[in-house]
Amino acid sequence: MKSLLITLGLVLITLIGYTQPRFVRLETNKGNITLMLYEETPKHRDAFLKSIKKGLYNDAAFNRVIKAFVSQGGELDETILDREKLSPEKPLARIPAEIVPALFHKKGALGAGRNDNPEHSSYLTQIYLVVGKPQTDAALDAMEKKKGHQYSLAQRAAYKTIGGIPRLDLDYTVFGEIVEGMEVADAINLSPTDKNDLPLQPITFTPKVLSKKESAKLLERLPKN
């Protein structure tokens, strides 16, 4: 009986470990941003966590900051594509698209960058944080007609209040969102840039995966839906 209880306890611990969301803290030179990675996009979640473990994002830069649009970090398109041209015989390293209509480009969304490929597959080492701007019903109606997609009432409410970028929906994978540090993300997006959208003062970040204990404490203080 005692061994059975121990076994059941281990099973419960395992299940809890699998169902708990994964969180990543971006430690930037402007402050910290905490991201929650979506369970609905496991390929992007796992690829991001793997890249972090390998140190591919250590001291990465926000290298394309477009006000009221996005703040892009990691490798630039040009760097990735130029490197791939050196080994044309190798298959392109991409993350298969995981475009989920319920996951949209509201302010604070975490997206994966990509080039213009028909599969909508994502780069391994390029992310962006959505800022955007509040939308009107007319603008959302027009986007629904253009994309053949209807927004839910909750999505419309988010776009009309906090804002976002609906024109990116269904074209890029959204795989997480900011749960703490939106003020830091706003400060990054407001940074002065040159004509190529590169910040005049370098903005760097290193992502750290939160432990289960840290994640549990974070969940306790986050608003309950």
Q: CATH homologous superfamily - what is it?
A: Cyclophilin-like
Give, in spatial order, the strands making up the sheet with the most strands: 1-2-7-5-6-4-3-8
Radius of gyration: 19 Å
Report on the biggest sheet: 8 strands, antiparallel, barrel
What is the N-to-C succession of helices and strands?
HEEHEEHEEHHEHEH
Tertiary shape = globular
* Broad structural category: alpha+beta
Mean pLDDT level: 91
CATH class: Mainly Beta
What is the third-level CATH name, the topology? Answer: Cyclophilin
Runs with pLDDT <50, length 5+?
Answer: 1-18
Number of helices: 7
Would you identify the CATH architecture?
Beta Barrel
Count all strands and give the number: 8
Distance between the termini: 39 Å
- Helicity range of the residues? 25-40%
Tally of individual domains? 1
